[in-house]
Amino acid sequence: MHERNLIDFARVPATIGKSVRHERNMSPAMEHLVSLLQSALGLTAKQGWTWLIAGASVLTLNGYEFGPFAKLGGTWLAVAGGVAVFGAAILLVSFGSYLIAEGARRKKARGRAKGREGEWNFINEEAFRNLDILNEPEQAALAWIIRNGHQRFLSDGFHMDGDLRSKHIIGGPVGQTRDVYQVIDSVWAIKDELDKRYQNIRTYDEPPWSLRFVGRI
Q1: How far apart are CA 178 and CA 172, in angstroms?
Q2: pLDDT, tens only, 121-164
Q3: In 56-188, at which residue ranges do the beta strands (DSSP E only) sit?
Q4: How many Å apart are CA 188 and CA 85, to the nearest integer?
Q5: Burial level of 118, CB count in 10 A (0-12/13-18/19+)?
Q6: How many other C-beta atoms lie within 10 A of the C-beta of residue 86?
Q7: CB under 8 Å to 72, separation ≥6 — which residues?
Q8: What letter does residue 71 receive in the DSSP assignment?
């Protein structure tokens, strides 16, 4: 059963527009540079915060002339400044790496959603075309389903001359089930029109594809 019959396709929320723009503005050269820096440094964002806080703390305590930090010379202050800058660089690289990974993930998700939607549109078109070429047993089967009033139904198999599944009129088994089938949404949406079209077809209590019905003929 096609997934569209079970849930609506996820749409990309408007709130991620800014992230998408970051992804589009990130050139391949920049992506390569960020990946190279991350591999070369081999440091995590947590370590970056540690370096940044340590260096900034030393500079702050020196600025307030707190205890022994007030006596630090220029060399130590330069080292502390370098540590802080190094920590900030690690955080920037980590953030760039996150943006790249998140952008790739969302791009992949949009690609999957677009692919499913394209497949769904194809199935819809095929179903509408095939409605006009259903043979008599297939028309009787669809008429029975419509008159039964349930888009989703149980069946232990289809013993009939024809196949509504291969013509994309119904799909299944749904999910992990073995006997649950469902008329696709686009066909079910015009069930009233189809009911009028098949008004001269006689149906019975048993579905026309069941072994019990076939045995009566």
Answers
A1: 8
A2: 777 888 888 998 999 999 999 999 999 999 999 888 887 888 89
A3: 152-154, 170-171, 180-183
A4: 63
A5: exposed
A6: 17
A7: 58, 62, 80
A8: G
Q: Please state, in angstroms and rounded to a whole number, the distance separating the CA atoms of residues 54 and 33.
A: 27
One-letter identity of residue 13 = P
Q: What is the pLDDT of residues 42-66, one digit of tens each?
A: 667 777 788 788 888 878 887 777 7
Contacts of 18 (CB under 8 A, 6+ apart): none
**Torsion-angle region of residue 157: left (phi > 0), alpha (psi -120 to 50) or beta?**
left
> In this structure, what are the phi and psi dihedrals at residue 152, rounded to the nearest 5 degrees?
-105, 140
Residue 109 has which token pair?
A: 């998700």
